[in-house]
Amino acid sequence: MKSKGVVKLARDVKTINEQWEFEKQGKKMELSLPHTWNAEDGQTGPDMYFRGVCTYRKQLRKPELVSGQQVYIEFRGVNASAVVRINGEELARHDGGYSTFRVNITDALKEDNTLEVLVDNEPNEKVYPQRADFTFYGGIYRDVYRIIVDSSHFDMDYYGGSGLRITPEINGEDAVVYFETYSVGDAAKIVVSIEGVGETELMLETVNGKTYGKGSIAISGVHKWDGVEDPYLYRATAALYRGGEIVDVVTERFGCREFRFDAKEGFFLNGRHYPLHGVSRHQDRLGVGNALTREMHEEDMELILSMGANSIRLAHYQHDQYFYDLCDEKGIVAWAEIPYITVHMDTGRENTLQQMKELITQNYNHASIVCWALSNEISLQGVTENLMENHRLLNDLVHKMDKTRASAMANLFLLETDSPLVTLPDIRGYNLYYGWYVGEMEDNDTFFDDFHGKYPDIAIGLTEYGADAVITLQSPKPEKGDYTESYQAIYHEHMLEMFAARPYLWGTYVWNMFEFAAAGRDEAGDPGKNHKGLITFDRKQKKDAFYIYKAWWSAEKFVHLCGKRYHDRVEDVTEIKVYSNLEKIVLYVDDRFFAEQEGQHVFRFQVPIGGVHRIRAVGGNCEDSMEIAKVDTPNPAYFMSLDKVRNWFDAPEENGEEREGYLSINSTMAEIQSTEQGAALLAGIMGQMAGKTAGGMGEGVAIPEAMQKLVARQPLKKLLHQGGVELDPEKLQELNKALNQIPKTKVCF
């Protein structure tokens, strides 16, 4: 039977974002939603941003209602806990700052009404997240809707969902699409149609006053949702009849696709190998916080696509429905997760289960989503039986609610690979920061080689990796821990080469696509932010590392000169580096031919300089240009502080004098810790490092044996630098002299 077309919507939906009164600590103001009260203080550093209870009020006129209609208020995101009142009467409470919830206000309505929402982002011991490396913005930061429905309607109270579940199953070139509906009231029949395909009347069953509908529609010659190349979406409409009249309608889009995770060959979409070139994304930006507009969501998506990415890890919580819609429309493969993060709370179990139920119910129909993640870096302070049980319950819940997708986890790089937590979900990823917080870039290669060699039948991906960079910081000799744009670029060059050699990785996710607020951080002279983004917090400037990904992943031809912000150069011969997806680059200096080079992705030229020069790189029809200048002394703006300004080429290595047979700051951690006096000296320093690392996330960390061995091989001076403990030259010299008094002992690794 052919569809008769999309029927007219029977429910009345409108936003009520305007004319709210906001009260914080006794002060009132008028504003429009979305809104957060931490748009500024949540982005300025470790001084405590306001976490407390604020109140939003709105005057509502009772709408004209007929035939027992019901009035709901729908909140798309209120962080973190909310109490909803009408005319002083409490109607609902909701814990969880990232999901949709609705409140039926019908019975409490008078002719004139005051809608009041008490919003609380205070620390507590039951609602996640409580400890994490990002800001917990308070506020009603997504849209609010007033929805009027008939007394018979698709269920508005079941975990914020639409009341319509769509499950496509592909069989060769055809598909069968299964439908389930949930409704309340008197449903005479429910008809579901797929636009341009056909329609079916569902079989209905009433249980405990609720009606459940089931049915299916076959699609011959199905048009598959096929990633960024062809993200085709179907549109389904469910119409609820009471008597002969349509009294409620919901419409959902869906895609028909198959996918699998292979432990040896990676990710497959619709039967073909489809490497997931991914980025992670937080939902905030400079001066706005998390109260984003649709235009901002769209800009984020376009920037991600322009780099050539085809997958997004939507961290560390449920994102705006509009952004999931964009993922569907653009063909992005998405990882979705709840904010069960960093530190497990024995008292928070019910909240994790609630948030997972809401995540799956509200997002089940999104074609883009391929997995539901149980937690992120939850083992920071160790793995307890209570934590394991919480994860077993979540894993079982995922499989019960959705048999078509995988359960997943993002594991802290400190978690031992033989932990039972690793193999609990269907797929897993590790968050590795070798080459930034600890170890060297090559340790990432070793980790995956060892893991894949030991567990060849377990699907593994890289769910986080990155290095911080502040775009003003530059260096001719970049090194780990210097926060320069230069080092970040070198780090990501290595990671991309590493991925190419390991096709078994089911996906990789840059941490992060954009800089984001992390109120606990105070680093590199720009506090309150995590600077690992490939694009600045305001989305205005792309760092050089953005373009190395574009060179590997994008088909759009381009040429990019690195180091444009490194204008003042002290070296006599400077490296000019070009990123491009073309295979031949011609370099011009002061409009004269300098050299030609063939290669892939990265092109390096050694150019003598003296004075001011115009540099131009040309590949095919693409080109890029910049100006550089030879200077006698380093530009202090390129360093984290004036104390760091030094001549990289003439100054000797300071404060590291060696005394034969004795320790120094160049001794390894193992050498120092093997002596009683050396261990005592280290105790205080390591405490400082824990408080500095990742905005204080290093405090209370349980360090496994494998990581201890890696740290033990590191020289103390190097570890101090990369750990963010900046000792001035005089104190560093004092520490070295103290170590020079301690005889070395023999150490075996």
What does this structure look like?
Mean pLDDT is about 90; it is low at about 1-10 and about 645-655. The strands form eleven sheets. Strands 33-32-31-30-29-28-27-34 form an eight-stranded parallel β-sheet, covered by helices on one side. Strands 3-2-4-10-7-8 form a six-stranded antiparallel β-sheet, with no helix packed on it. Strands 13, 14, 15, 18 and 19 form a five-stranded antiparallel β-sheet that branches. The protein is about 20% helix and about 30% strand. The longest helix is centred in the middle third of the chain and has 17 residues, at about 385-400. The chain is built from 13 helices and 44 strands.
Q: Fraction of residues in helices?
A: 10-25%
Distance between the termini: 74 Å
pLDDT under 50 segments (min length 5)?
Answer: 1-8, 644-654
- What value does the Rg take, in angstroms? 28 Å
Main beta-sheet strand count, sense and barrel state: 8 strands, parallel
Q: How many individual helices?
A: 13
Shape from CA axes? globular
- Structural class, judged by helices and strands? alpha+beta
Strand order of the largest sheet: 33-32-31-30-29-28-27-34
Total E-strand runs: 44
Percentage of β-strand residues: 25-35%
Mean pLDDT: 92
